[in-house]
Every structure is written in structure tokens, then in C-alpha cells.
Amino acid sequence: MSMATKGSDIEYPTGKDRINGYLASPVDGKQHPGVIVIHEIFGLDPHTRSVADRMASEGYVALAPDLFSSRKLSEVITREGIAATMEFIMSIPPDKQRDENYRENLLNNIDNDKRKVIMDTYNMLLKNRPVDLLTGYLSSGVDYLHSLETVNGKIGSVGFCFGGGMSISLGCTGKVDATAIYYGENPEPLDKLKNVKNAVIGFYAGEDRRITSKVPELVSKLFEYNKEVSVKIYPGAYHAFFNSTRPTIYNKRASEDSWRLLMSFYREIFGM
Asked: Which of 81, 257, 77, 262 is nearest to 164 (CA)?
């Protein structure tokens, strides 16, 4: 049954910096598990906020951090750069998303100034990603959830695309009780998985060869460390199939089925 919720913009500390975020919670006055909801490569957008709202309606206190809002990163990853990069990526057909030659040819048709903005943002987010720094931001988000009276001490995470990789990176800190990955990259090195505290669930797209081809390595290493793991691959689905704001990629069947499995996963881990 869907619960009444409220949402608000918040800010939490991380080291000597701070992170902006969106907090969505049930309004019943009771304690609930917390969930870190981690955005795609485009930053905290209306879609990610809607996922946090949806999570809250299921009975969780959901925190969606804006990982690019710190003073350190906002100097190099601007809103304008994210918007231009998002526009560029969304202009690529689903079957060409992983085609580097196609992407390079497309970039060459863009004027120099805009191309530089896109490439600088793209390189920072995809090629030179500061994973340890970003994981620290998420770890501080877990601390923030623990500080709330409405959170019962149990914390999970879920992330999409870029956020999927960051979700398992957070899981490798041992600070969350349940880790969910939507088509995210494996942690490097895989030996980090030995620190996973509890269970992992992953959802992947059959047409997302670059990411999905690495799933057996993830499962094998989790098995080696005696961690609980379940994975589902959706044949015919493309990377980012959960994002309903991208009609050329959104897959209704995969989205609805994965959400059902995710909620079941959380209920089992959190004893709800």
C-alpha cells in the first residue's frame, strides 16, 4: 500500500565540504529503513527525485544526494556541462550508445566551444572519475541518515548507470545492509567486494554488452567471499531501461519487474 510522503531539499556535511540532496520520507511519524538513491551520470534530476519519492511511498526514508554539488566538484562539473553532455548522450540512438566511433563522429559535428565543454565533463565523469571521493560523499550520506530519528538504523542503497557503480562502491565500504545495482560498472579491484556487509542484487540490460559482460566476474567474486547475490538480465533491454524520461530506451516490462524484485529484496533484508 502506498504511503503518504513529504520531500525537501537538504544539505549534509562531508569532511570540510557539503553535499546538497533531496530527502523523501513517509509522514506517519514512525521509524523506517533508509535508502541512498544514487543518480545517473546527469546528476540529481527530476527523475531521481521521483525515484526517491516512490521509495518513500514504499516505506523508506530516501536520500538522493547530488554528488556533483560539492564545492570541490562543482568547480569542474558545471550544470551547463552536465546539460550539454546529457543532450549529446540522449541524441545517440540506443543501439549506438557504446559505439565509440559513432560518438566521435557525432562530436566532430559540434562547434568547438560546446565540444570542449562536453569532452571536459565526459572525461571527468567517465574516464577520470574520482570514485574514492564520490564514495566518501555517499558514506557521509549514510551517516546523515543514521542521524535522523525517523531512520531505524538499517540502510540500503540503489543506483542507476553511474549510480549503479557507485552503489556497489558504497556497498564495498561495509556501511550499508543491502546493495542494489542497476546496470552499473563493477568495483575496481574486485577484491573490494570482500567488505560487502550483506546482500547484493543487480539488474542488467541484455543489449548493454560492455556492462553486462562483466557480471559473471562480479557474481564469481561475491560467491568467493560467500556473499548473497542475485542478478537478473533483461534480454532486449538497453542501458538505462529504468528511466521513464528517456522513451527511446525505457523498457516498461523490465522497469516494473525489477522494481518488484527490488522491493522484495529490501523487505527480506530489512525484515519488513
From this structure: 262
Query: Residue 24: what residue type?
Result: A
| Model pLDDT for residues 98-120, shown as the tens digit of each residue | 788 888 888 888 888 888 888 88
The DSSP call for residue 3 is P
Question: What backbone phi and psi angles, to 5 degrees, belong to 157?
Answer: -140, 155
Residues designated as active site: 161, 208, 239
Helix-helix angle 79-90:112-122, to 10 degrees: 100
List the Cα angle 38/261/22 in 5-degree steps. Answer: 25
Tell me the per-residue pLDDT of 32-83, one tens digit each, with 9 for 90 and over.
999 999 999 889 999 999 999 999 999 999 999 999 999 999 888 888 888 8
Class of domain 5-70+134-270: alpha beta
Domain spans in the chain, listed from the N-terminal domain onward:
5-70+134-270, 79-127
Map residue 230 onto helix, strand or coil.
strand
Q: What is the pLDDT of residue 190?
A: 98
Alpha carbon distance 220, 114 (integer Å): 42
> Half-sphere exposure of residue 102, counting CA atoms within 13 Å on the CB side?
11
Percent of the chain with pLDDT over 70: 100
**Cell 556497489 -> residue:** 168
